[in-house]
Structure formats: C-alpha cells, structure tokens
Amino acid sequence: MEAVWSADAHVRGMLAFEAVLALAEADAGVIPRDAADTIASVCQTVTLDAFGIFRDAARAGTPAIPLVRMLTERTPDAARGFVHWGATSQDAVDTALVLQMRDGLDLLAGTLRETGASCAALAERYADMPMAGRTLLQQALPVTFGLKAARWLAMVTRQMRRLREVRERISVLQLGGAAGTLASLGDAGVRIVELAAERLGLAPPDLPWHAERDRVGEVAGTLGVVAGAMAKIARDVILLAQTEVGEVAEGGAPDKGGSSALPQKRNPIDATLAIAASRLAIGMVPIVLGAMAQEHERGVGGWQTEWEALPDLFRYCGGAAEHMRDALRHLRVEPDRMRDNLERSRGQVMAEALTMALAPSLGRDNAFRVVRDLSEQTRAAGQELQEVAHGDERVRSVLTAEEIDRVFEPAQYLGSTKQFIDRALTEYRALVTPAAGDATDG
Amino acid sequence: MEAVWSADAHVRGMLAFEAVLALAEADAGVIPRDAADTIASVCQTVTLDAFGIFRDAARAGTPAIPLVRMLTERTPDAARGFVHWGATSQDAVDTALVLQMRDGLDLLAGTLRETGASCAALAERYADMPMAGRTLLQQALPVTFGLKAARWLAMVTRQMRRLREVRERISVLQLGGAAGTLASLGDAGVRIVELAAERLGLAPPDLPWHAERDRVGEVAGTLGVVAGAMAKIARDVILLAQTEVGEVAEGGAPDKGGSSALPQKRNPIDATLAIAASRLAIGMVPIVLGAMAQEHERGVGGWQTEWEALPDLFRYCGGAAEHMRDALRHLRVEPDRMRDNLERSRGQVMAEALTMALAPSLGRDNAFRVVRDLSEQTRAAGQELQEVAHGDERVRSVLTAEEIDRVFEPAQYLGSTKQFIDRALTEYRALVTPAAGDATDG
Amino acid sequence: MEAVWSADAHVRGMLAFEAVLALAEADAGVIPRDAADTIASVCQTVTLDAFGIFRDAARAGTPAIPLVRMLTERTPDAARGFVHWGATSQDAVDTALVLQMRDGLDLLAGTLRETGASCAALAERYADMPMAGRTLLQQALPVTFGLKAARWLAMVTRQMRRLREVRERISVLQLGGAAGTLASLGDAGVRIVELAAERLGLAPPDLPWHAERDRVGEVAGTLGVVAGAMAKIARDVILLAQTEVGEVAEGGAPDKGGSSALPQKRNPIDATLAIAASRLAIGMVPIVLGAMAQEHERGVGGWQTEWEALPDLFRYCGGAAEHMRDALRHLRVEPDRMRDNLERSRGQVMAEALTMALAPSLGRDNAFRVVRDLSEQTRAAGQELQEVAHGDERVRSVLTAEEIDRVFEPAQYLGSTKQFIDRALTEYRALVTPAAGDATDG
Amino acid sequence: MEAVWSADAHVRGMLAFEAVLALAEADAGVIPRDAADTIASVCQTVTLDAFGIFRDAARAGTPAIPLVRMLTERTPDAARGFVHWGATSQDAVDTALVLQMRDGLDLLAGTLRETGASCAALAERYADMPMAGRTLLQQALPVTFGLKAARWLAMVTRQMRRLREVRERISVLQLGGAAGTLASLGDAGVRIVELAAERLGLAPPDLPWHAERDRVGEVAGTLGVVAGAMAKIARDVILLAQTEVGEVAEGGAPDKGGSSALPQKRNPIDATLAIAASRLAIGMVPIVLGAMAQEHERGVGGWQTEWEALPDLFRYCGGAAEHMRDALRHLRVEPDRMRDNLERSRGQVMAEALTMALAPSLGRDNAFRVVRDLSEQTRAAGQELQEVAHGDERVRSVLTAEEIDRVFEPAQYLGSTKQFIDRALTEYRALVTPAAGDATDG
After folding, report:
1. Is A136's CB within 8 Å of B294's CB?
2. Smallest CA–CA separation between D17 and chain C, in Å?
3. Antiparallel, parallel or unpaired: β D248-249 and D138-144
4. B267 CB near a chain C CB, below 8 Å?
5. Is C208 on the interface with D (CB under 8 A)?
C-alpha cells in the first residue's frame, strides 16, 4: 500500500494520463500521430524526479504543473508543442488518483480475501466449540467460537462485495480541460474522453467531475466501514486475549509482543496496531467528506486536502486489514479456557435456557421472574444456578431433574448456530471461487 | 425527517417488530396462534408513553426493556406469556432502527428528486447562458450556467442511485436472540426469521448482526456523501450570491434573509443553513464508524452511540437536502451580472482560447508563453487582452484580425458543454421516469 | 444541562443582553434613561414563545431577528424605538451563548467535583488493596485499586482546573454592531461595551469576535478532553466489571442494568452510556473547530453550525460526566476477585519483581533473559513461577529461598504507590477547599 | 516541523530519556555513577538506525524495545546491565514525545509571531482604508482593512498566549515503570523522577500518566484551534482575492500560483494550501481525543494511535501557519478595488448609517422600516440610495441635504474602529517584547 501511494506511483499515473491523452487526441485527429507516439514513448520511458515535482508543487499549487514542465522539456522538439494538449492539471492529477485508488482497492480486497480465509478456517474448525457469548461484556449464553468467526467472516465477505462495487464506480477518467467544458478540444472532446478512458481500462465519466467529489467521498465512506469492521474483529481478539480470559493469543514470530520491562508479556500486537490504524483511517473519512464542498469549477482547499487524506486513508485502512490478517492467520485458540470460562458464571450463563424451558408452562414473563429470583439467590449464596434450580419448587413442578440437568448443557442450547456458520462459509466461498469472482481481487 | 426519527416512531417500530415476531412464531408453530393474534392486535392499537420509555431506558440500558414491560402489562393474560418470545432487546431496537432508516432514505430520495428537478430546469433554461468558469475562485474561462446546474444534477442523480442501493442493502430484519444463536427458538429460528422479515417487507439477514455494524456504517458513509454534495451546491450558490458577484439570489418569502441591523440585506439563508447542516451531518459519520468496534455479541458503548448519532445524521442530512431544494426552487438568476462579470477580467478569461488558437501554429508550449506575456502586459497596462492581442506581432503572424475577434466571443468557446448538459438531463430523467424508477422514491 | 441549553434559556440570554445593552446605552447617555428602564423591565418580565422564535429563525437566519421583533412589539411606544439600539443579531445570540456556556461549564465543574469526591474516597479506602496492573490488557505487575482511583482523580482534578481557566477566558461580551465597528454608537462604543459587560458579570472583549471563534474552539477542545477523560474511566470500569474479571460492579437502583432476555444480567449501564456520550461529545469537537473558518465579518454556515454543535457538545459531555459520577458513587468493589485474579497468572505478574531482585547481581539485561526463560518454562509446564524460580540454579545462586518468597508478595512490590495516592488526594482537596476554590464550581 | 517529528528526532528523544534516567538513578544512589556516566555518554554519541527501529517496532509493539536492545548492545559490559533500569518502554516513548511536542510548540509559536508581525503591519498601514464589511458574504457596512487585519492579529495573539500555557503544562517527564508504581526503583522512585525531570528541563508529573492522556488531548485541542484560526484568515484572503473582488492578491515568487492551462492565472496558493492543511490538522483532533480511552495501566490501540496522529497534527498545523505567514508577508493590497467595491452597492452599504441618522427622530424601528423601503426602491429602480434618500419626504423631514450627504461618507461611519486596532496592536506588542515574553517563543 505504501508503494501504491508513493510519490513515484502518482508521477507514473500522471504520465500514463499524458500518454493516453496524446494517443486519444491522435486517434481523434486533433494532434499528429507522430507527436502522440513520441509523447507516449517519452511518458513510458522517462524517469522524473518525483521529489522535485512535489517540492515544486508547493509553489505551483499542483504537482501536474512541474510534471508537465519537465515532460515538455524531455519531449523532442517536433512533439513538444502537443504535450498536455487541451488538458488541465486536475485532469492529470485526478486520473492518477483514480489509478492509485483502483490499485489500492485491489490490494485491500486481496487482504480481505486472506482475512476471510482465516475466518472461514476458524469457523469450520471451531463450529461446535462452545464458549461464552458476551453482551456488554457480561456472559450471556453460550455460542461457539466457530459462530464468532462466522460473523467476522460474513462481515468481511460483505466488505469484499462493497469494494468491487466501489472499484467499478470510481474507475472513471477525469478529463474536462480548464473549466470542465473541453473547450480546447473543439468538437472532439467527448470522443477523446472515450478513447482515452478505454486505453486506461477506465470508464468515461458522464461529465467532468473536477469539483463534484462524490465518487471520492464514496471511497472514503467505504474504506471507513472496512476500517470499522477490522476494529470490531481486533477488539474481540484483544478481549479474548486478556490474561483473565485467555481464550486466544496472537501467535506469529516468537519475539513478537514482548515488553521492555516485563519478561512474561505476550501482547496482542497485531490487533493493537489494527485498532490504531482503524482509528486513524476512520479519522480521515470526515476530512475527505468535509472537503467535498469544492468551489465552482475547481476547489480552493478542498481538492488539495484529498492529496494527503486519501493516501493516508488507504494506508491506514490497508494497515488495519493487514494486521488483522496476520493476527487471525496465526491465532492460537485455547479450547480449555473457553470451557473453563463458561463454567465460571456458576451456571448463570444458562439462565435463559432455564427460562425458556419453564416458559411453555409458566409463560415467558413468569418464567423470567422465577429465574431472576433464582439467579439472585445463586449470586448471594455463592452457589451454582443448577443446584439452586434443583432445589426450587416452582422449577421442580415443571421440569424433571433430568430435564433440569439437560438445560445446563451448553451444547444443547445453540439454536441456529450451525446453520449460520454454514451460510457464512457458503457466501464467502461463492465470492472467492473463480466462477463468481473476477480477476480484480485475485 | 423529524417525524421519522421521533421517539414515537421508534416505539411504533419496536411494536411492529413484536407483532411480526409473534405472528411468525405462530406460523412456525412455536407459540399459539391465538396468543400471537392477541399480541399483534395489542401492538397495533396500544398507545405507549414514548417519553416514559426513553426516560426508563437510561436505567435499563435500552428502550426495549421498558417497552416489553409495558407491552406485557397491556397484553391480556392468555397471551401475556408469549410477548417478546425468544427475542432480545436489540432485536426490537435494531429492527425499529431499520424501519426508520428505510423511511428516512425514502424521504431523502424524494427531496433529492425535487432538488434534481430544479437543477434540471436550470440546466435546460440556461444551457447557453455564458458565465465565468472559476477555478480556485479566479476566473478561468467561460462555462454556461446550464453546465454548472448540470454538474449539480449529475451529482444529485448519482446520489439518488446510491440511496436506492443502500436502501436495498439495509432493509434486513434483526433477530438473533440474546447472543445471536436463536437458541430460545430451538430448530425453528431460521424459519421464523424468514417469516418475520417477510411480514415487514424486509430481507432476512444472512446472520444476526448485533455487533457487526457494517450496514449501519454504509448508511452513514452514504449520507455523509449526500451531505457533502449538498454543501458543494450550497457553496456555489453562496459565492454566486455575493454582492460583488450577484449572479444569483435566493428568492422565497419576501422577509427571508433580512437582518436585524441592516435594512438592505438579502442573505442566502437556505444555502447558509444547508452548509451548517452538512457540516453537522458529516460530523456524525466518524462517530458512527468509530462505534463499529462493538464488543463480542453486543457492544458496550458503540451500539448505544448509534442511538443519537444516526437520528441526528438523518436529520442533518435531510435538513441540508431540504434547504438546498428550497434554495434552488426559488433561485433568482441574473443573466446581466453573468455577462458583466465575464467582461470584468478584461478579456483574460479568454486567454486559453487565444492559446489554443495559436497552438496549432506555435505549439502549445510556445503559445502558452506568448499568451502569458500578453496577459501580464494587459494587467500591467490596465488594458483589454483582445486589444493587446491585436497589437502583438506574434499573434498577428498567425491569426487574422477577424479570427482574433472571434477568439474573444465566449459563446464560441464552450466545447462539449451542450453534450454534457444533455447527458445529465438524460440520466436524471431515466432515473425518475416510472419505468426506470421504483415505487420507493416517488 | 438540558435546561441550560434549552430554547428558553437561549431566549432568556438574548433578553438579558437586550436589557443590559439598553441600560449601558443610557449610562453612556446614548439613549434616554426612561426608555432603557422600560426595555430592561420588559426583558425581565416578558414571556416569549421560544418555539415560535426558533421556527421563524429558519427563515430569518437567526433567532435574534424574531426575538427583536417580538420584543419591540411588547415594548411600550415611548421606548420601542430604542430596542436593540446599535446592536446586531449576532451580538444578542453570541452573548446568550456565552451565558449558556458559562452556566454549562459551572454545571460540568460541579459534576466533576462529585466524581472527584468518589475517586478520592476510593483512592483512600483501597490505597493498599493490591490488584493486577494491566498493560495492553495483559497482567503486568501489581498496583493497588487505590492507585487506579488516584490516577482517575488526578485527571479529574486537572480537568477541573482547566474548566476554571476556560470559564474565565470565554466569559466575554459580544457587542460589535453589524460589522464589528460599533459605528452606530458613535464615540460611545467602547464605553458601552464595558458598561454592558460589567452588568452581566462578563469581561469586555479586546475586539468584537463575530468571526474569530477561537474562544468557542477552546471550549470545544476542552470539553473534548473532559469527554475523553470520562471515557478512560468508563472503559476501566467496564473492563473490571467483565464476568471473567469481576473486580467491580455498578451498583445503584436494583433494576438497573437488567436485560429483556437474560435474567442473570447486571450490565454496567452508566459506564456504557458514558462511553456513548463521550464518543458523541468528541465527535462534536471537529465540527466546532471546522466551523471556525468564518467569512469576513460574519460567517455563512460556520457560525450557524455552532448553534447545534455547541449545545450537543455540552449535553453529551455533561451526560458522560454525570454517568461516570453515578457509576463511581455506587461502585461495588470486590477485593476477593482482585486477589484471585492476581493469583491467576501463576506468579507471572511478579516476573518484573524477580528480574529486579536478580538485576543488582546479574545486570538488568541478563536478569531479564533469565526470567523470560523461567516465564516460558512456567507457561509451558503449567506451573507456578515461584516454584520454578526456587528450582532454578541461576536464581538460587543470587537469592535465598526466603528472598525468593518475598519477591512474590505483591504488597512488597508497590514502589511509590502510596506517595502517588497522597499527591492526588492533596491536589484534589486543595482545589475544592473553600480557600483555594472560588464560588463558581460549588 | 518535519525535522522535529522525524524518526531521528524521536530516537534522539528516547536516548535523552535513557541518559537522564541513568544519571538520576546514579544521583539517587540506585545504580553506580560510572555505569550512569557510560550510558549517558553512549546515548549522546551513538548513532542508531532509526529506520530499523521503526521497522522492528511493528513487531515489538513499541520503538523503545528495539532501541533499548540496540543501546544495550552498544553499551560497554560494565554498564550494560544498568541500561533502562526500572523504566518501561512507554516512559522512553512518552518522554521523547514530550520533548518533540515542546519543540513543535516553540516552532509554531515562532511562526505565529511572524504571522502576527505581518498582521500588525497591515493593521497599522491600512487603519484608515475603508472597505466593505461583509456579513454572510453580503456587503453590510464599511470597515477598514486595518480593522480586518487587527481582528486577525488579536486572534493570533490569543493563540500565542495559549501555546505558552500549553507548553508549560505538557512539559512533564513520563516515568512510572511498567505499571506506574515505580516498583522497580524501591523507595527512590519519586526522587529519581524529580532528578531526571530537572535534567531535561521538564517538570516532574504529579503521577505517572501512561493511560491518562489529558495533556496530550489538550495539545490536540489547542492545535486544532490554531488550525481553525489559520483557516479563518486564509478564507478571508481567498475571498478578497477573487477576480470579482480583487482587493488583495498573494505575492511571492513570480511563478507562484500559475496554471498548466490558463496563462492569465494568479492563484492564491498559500491560502489554498493553508486551508487544506487546516482541514487535515482539525481532522487529527478527534483521533487524538478518541484515543484517550486507554485501558488500565497502558492502552491497547489508543496510545499507539497517537504515534501517527500527533506528528501529523503538528505537521499540518505548522503547515497551515507557515502558509499563512507567507501569504500575509507578501500580500498585495489593492486600495482602488476596495474603494470601487464599496461603491458597487449603490449606497446600500450605508443603509445602517442612514437608519441611525433617522433613529433619534423616528425611533430605531420606524427608521429601519423607512430605510428598508428606500433600499428596496433603490434596488428595483437601479438607482443610488443616496439619491433616493434625497428625494424621500420622511428623510427630508429629519435630515438636511448636507446631513444626508454626510451619512454616505464611509470614513465618517467607522465607530470604534481606530480604538480596536490600537488595542490589537498593543496586546501583540506587549506579548512579543522581551520584557513580557520569555525565551521560548523567540
């Protein structure tokens, strides 16, 4: 992701724009074929000083101005007069940006695919492994670790689909000339836009979009959601990795997650850094959205804001995804601790199961009250809920001792867990198999 | 939008959930048909104290808890025991939220459609009305006011499309039970989800999504983009309405936009309030995205954040859209000022036209340098560029006096303007005509 | 906080402004004394329709316009012509805002003071109660619960100090007339500003600040920090309240924190809602800061943004503080669980103590390596670190068996804990005792 | 600012921490003097691979871990065992951060001082130069350009004062050991903190602040306000520089602000980039504040977020300030355009002056209505307000023809303008003169 958003990549993108612009103009008969071929060839082979371009950009206001100047200097005399013909700086900068966003989205989709693969493996392997489901960080009732992984997976799968849609939507050329009329191309403007777009594998835009940045905004919103999704998984991993919970640990390199003071520490570093990266990525989203209010035919401040915010957004979102991919790939799962923790509530985690066992006879509302009483009694007395239930007349009038015992087996109270896991696996696999997928997120 | 996000509407949504839950459970044979009918009937007719519910929510942690309590109290004995059977608070709250988001999206789509209609009318009427195109708030070269409106229109049309997609994607039921396993519904869970979803006109979710909030995040991102789009149009209107520019003014009621101190003032109130609303809406986006990191099976802080942030997001985004609809509907356009302003640059706004007229003979780079010289000369001498061009040998060696004069006619230098306007109109109309559209954003 | 930021309170603030304006102008001889007295009297006694004012504000652009209109209508003929003399809408709106911010800051300071009192009580009571210190949510080495509370306290104390400073700085009148020159007051402008400010207990501003919103921005930043501080404490409480940790629980009303599905649940509701409120408050900060770029002599969008963002910021920040005050006031502390958890690391939490005991002889770097080895050995074998240490030759060559045992007593490895707690208590008490404090945050 | 926040500077800061730690520990008799001297000497002379440190930090979780490892390797045998004695990674990282923040604040204060100097020069030079005051971007009544500059100056001066306070408050050492108890330093902890702090010119903290980040949050809020202040000035400059307004232009290098397509353009590049930088800086603020909810004794995600967000915040805020400094230093002011624009409202800009001239006789409310009528009449008829006033009986019954003419002289309707300018100059000068200032922002 660093490479995709490097100064060099941006320069290469602008050169790609200048090349196809010239070629498309030659196709349309607006500039001589020879000149176009020369320009395209220079664009492909020239090495420009990206550092110098960005240093000069601070004075020029855009990197396209020094780039066009340098490119013009390097182009042989006969073709020199046709460089950047009919275009404006923003045409080059925005098209380069589009190419970088497309690459960035592909990279991110690839990372999510790997993350999804790890989730799928965990979902399948631990489909039947009971653990405490937790709401507001209190034990609620049993789930399985496979279900938790399946929920992560379903979210990742949905994001992979979103990235495809957004990729499609933002893969459009920018070409409008200085004020978006293509005035300098006479009658050939629309035709040249189509030809140039095709050469870059982009769609032609309906209209130039110099100051209508909704496509950019959509990318930002989408990456913000991906970053939020990564934080959700990271938060779960960190909570499960707490000393007192201990149900998972990050694996990876042996020296990973140590401490400078504490010899015993094994910190969940990848999930930690994923959370940091996610916060940073999400922080970029309103910057990009707030920058959408761009004035008239070219923004004075808003457009320039994107130049820092978008690369950082991709870097941070990519970082969050990569850290979570690594965390999940090497995740160590501790089934014993899952079992131990389920037992630590002294049966309280099965209170709903008991309620629902009583409900057909007592009504849900009465059953709820009975179990709440028993639950408080249990807590006060430091007993097991199962034991208290056995001793309670209201319960005994409805359930046999055997039925009561059965209520307290977590594996018998998992409802649709299995079906949910299967669905998440099916959806993910449908998306990543060659037939359903396309070449872009391989 | 206030009504959609009122406490009453949320209560109605939760009651709708409780009703279809009971009916679907009866369909699946899990609870008695009579009980379900009774519950559904109470849900339709009962009037609950929304204020009291939300006051108690601060203690209970969710509004569903007091609601279920009140509903249970109001339900006749025989059915009482089957209220909220197998569900959890979040099932009711989230499903109500989905219903409100769906209504909110429909309302917003309707407002955008009206905004689009005003843009379309302006685009058509002023298609040929030249005005100064401005980049970085400097006059650049001529556009038409119709083109500016067409660019607004294209952006609005794209957002209408996005809202449809998002509406589709978020219209899913929430039903997972206390930890997302539907354990309390035994084998019937998945079937009940399908039946309940169908009754509400929602899709059944792949998996319960109590703590996977990517759908909510996508709504936030999308509304943020709509808000940004509104701010772009608002900013343009405000800049055009400046005393020194004066190309448009907000119309509307005669007392609108007055001042308490200045008798002559006509402030662009709608655009001003649209900008404020847009900033507020965009500010909600990272709050919602940042809240996505929800812990395990139910979030402790993040989920609760949505309860304020989402309604505000819809209100502010809706407000921005409504203000811009009103501003554009009553917009007064001043063609004379557009013409005057075009002339105020002393011909500099046609500098690119002159460059492109010279470029076929001199090369774009040389032509650019020549015109930059002339332009500076013009500025220094306080002359007209046209006049200076006539007196310059380099120009005269390439262009006849007649050709020079023609260069300085804005209407001759509009390139693909007309085609762009047509496209924007075509796309908008295709979307809003009954055949292409659907019932939801009428 | 709701009351401070109600529409009524804003109307009262604007009326207070209009009253002192008239009185100060009479003092300066600019308007007749009788007229001023009449106006001031009307302002004190009149009841205006706040709802109507805010409804009309949407057309007028500010609430001051309908307010001045209504006030003028209610003022007897002889004085009517002197209402709002020389002022502009923003003078009234901003001064009302200042009065509300001052009240809001006082309220918040009072809440923090109570929060501080709870922290102080906890710090003192549990000064010597060992618990696991946790870094990156891994047990690190012992702290005491008193120290944790003392760190919360020190942060709260610092915020109380900050609020006092900010209160001082923002308590300034706004009065500049329509463009900030006080032109309509002739030579008397500056004098009237001083007189009016004094009557409201405000400072006169150096210059009118209609479009220079740094004071408002500072309030926003400061409240954002307070909100962040509340979230830190809330997060700690929630983590300590987890079923698997169980070191604290929220107390309060017996039905607080229940669940609609789970009879056994005791959710940490106050801390949960504090986190939500904190996220919302922090989300308001960039909205206010982003709105600072206000155009020329009065902003077109930015100023209007504050009208929603500032009240919400105070409400949310106040809410976070109130929830944490309640959570801490009723906090149930479980010393047994603290002891149990300290033991659950099998002595690993004392690894640094062992390192430092070995370091004088082995050097810190060697000691660190030795203990890291022992620690891994312990983990692999499922043993106690103390036991492993006893069996290790490198340790035995340096420490006696007695010394080893002593290393593993948490209470012996608390360093400066006691001094830190004392400092936090001293600083808090110095701030809240009458001599040191002032009347404003009582 | 790039240098202050470079990886090298961070490494140097951590080495400075390790040096004073050793020296203070020797002072307190905890480690041998020779070892301390050796360590301090290595810290001063060693060159570490900053790139390698940050690469390894991604695995270790903090840059202090690889730094301590490298430093230990480079330290001669006898002293090696005393490196990083009793400290934790965060002690080194946070102290380095404090040193960088202090340098960053000094740099920023210096830039603001220069910006203030330019504002002061403009305020003085153009104190009497009338221009249109504009509210909601409509001409309101006259101000002077000196007053506008004085308002900028007053805001800058207030920010300089704020930076001093914040600098004082954040200049505290971090030293708490692994869980903030300084357990590994026995009884000497507090003493060593004092000694180490003194050696770095920092204050000792009341308590360690590993997870209480309010100081960091305050820096973020303060820099956000500075960034907002810069955006206000930048926005004004850009609006004044519009082709249709033309009252100022950015100067600077002759090739600055050109265009790749438009030979005549002179874009306000510095103000444009200041706005972009300001938006980015403000975007960092909620990231830092949101990261304050750090868990227990060390944050898992929040702390790590600061590592990117704080340097970026300083860079962007510094960038905004530097661009505005440059924009104002070279600002070209166009008095002729100011005069022309004042006349373009056809006297409407003097409507309040006319109202106030009529008010003593008619009452403010009646006078307001009369002038509003005249104003509308003027607009409808395309006349001058002055002319219409002369022809109006209601006006003529109160004012002589001479008095009417006098009303329309802008220079006679400037109220307290002069006094305000003087105040702003006085405050700024008091702050920057050696007696009042201190060494830190020279």
Report:
1. no
2. 17
3. unpaired
4. yes
5. yes
**Over pLDDT 90: what percentage of chain C?**
87
* D62 shares contact with chain A (CB less than 8 Å): yes
Residue D180 to residue C239, Cβ atoms within 8 A: no
Residue with tokens 């049309």: B157
C101 Cβ contact partners less than 8 Å away, ≥ 6 residues apart: C170, C219, C310, C314
Cβ contact, residue pair C241, A385, below 8 Å: no
Chains near A, with 3+ CB pairs < 8 A?
A: B, C, D
Interface of A with C in 221-250 (CB under 8 A): 238-239, 241-245
Q: Which amino acid is at B133?
A: G
Cα–Cα distance measured from residue D341 to residue D250, given in angstroms and rounded to the nearest whole number: 19
Which of B104, B366, C254 lies closest to A83, judged by CA? B366
Give ipTM to 2 decimals.
Answer: 0.95
CB D294 within 8 A of CB D255: no
Active-site residue B346, yes or no? no
Q: Is the Cα torsion angle C144, C148, C149, C154 positive or negative in sign?
A: positive
**Which is the catalytic residue, given B55, B161, B259, B332?**
B259
- Closest CB to C283 among B178, B273, B286: B286
By DSSP bridging, strand C248-249 and strand B130-135 are unpaired
Residue D373 half-sphere exposure, CB side, CA atoms within 13 Å? 12
Residue C282, chain D, CB below 8 Å: the answer is: yes
The residue whose two tokens read 């915040």 is D313
* Beta-carbon count within 10 A of B379 CB: 16
- Rounded to an integer, what distance in angstroms lies between the CA atom of residue C319 and that of residue B319? 26
Q: Sorting pLDDT into bands at 50, 70 and 90, what band is B434?
A: confident
Global confidence as pTM: 0.96
Q: How far apart are CA D11 and CA D24, in angstroms?
A: 20
Report how far residue D416's alpha carbon sits from residue D420's, in angstroms, rounded to the nearest whole number.
6
Q: How far is C356 from chain D (nearest CA, A)?
A: 6
CA distances, C176 to each of C169, C189, D311 (Å): 18, 8, 39
Residue of chain C nearest B234, judged by CA positions: C301
Q: Does D296 touch chain C (CB under 8 A)?
A: yes
DSSP character for C298? B
Q: Best interface-test mutation with D: which of C214, C237, C242, C419 has the largest number of D CBs within 10 A?
A: C214
Is the minimum CB–CB distance between A261 and chain D shorter than 8 Å? yes
d(CA D109, CA D157): 10
The whole-angstrom separation of Cα D248 and Cα B130 is 26
Interface contact C244-A138, CB threshold 8 A: no
Concatenating the DSSP letter of every residue in D271-306 gives HHHHHHHHHHHHHHHHHHHHTT---TTB-SSHHHHH
Is A298 catalytic? The answer is: yes
Q: What is the pLDDT along chain D (442 residues), one digit of tens a residue?
A: 899 999 999 999 999 999 999 999 999 999 999 999 999 999 999 999 999 999 888 888 899 999 999 999 999 999 999 999 999 999 999 999 999 999 999 999 999 999 999 999 999 999 999 999 999 999 999 999 999 999 999 999 999 999 999 999 999 999 999 999 999 999 999 999 999 999 999 999 999 999 999 999 999 999 999 999 999 999 999 999 999 999 999 987 766 777 766 777 778 999 999 999 999 999 999 999 999 999 999 999 999 999 999 999 999 999 999 999 999 999 999 999 999 999 988 999 999 999 999 998 998 889 999 999 999 899 888 899 999 999 999 999 999 999 999 999 999 999 999 999 999 999 999 999 976 445 444 3
Catalytic residue among A259, A361, A397, A416: A259
- Contact residues, chain D, for A255 at CB < 8 Å: 59-60
Task: Determine which helix (DSSP H) or strand (DSSP E) holds D144, and give its type and residue range.
Answer: strand D138-144
Name the token pair of C409: 């007593």
The Cα of C169 is separated from the nearest Cα of chain B by a number of Å equal to 26
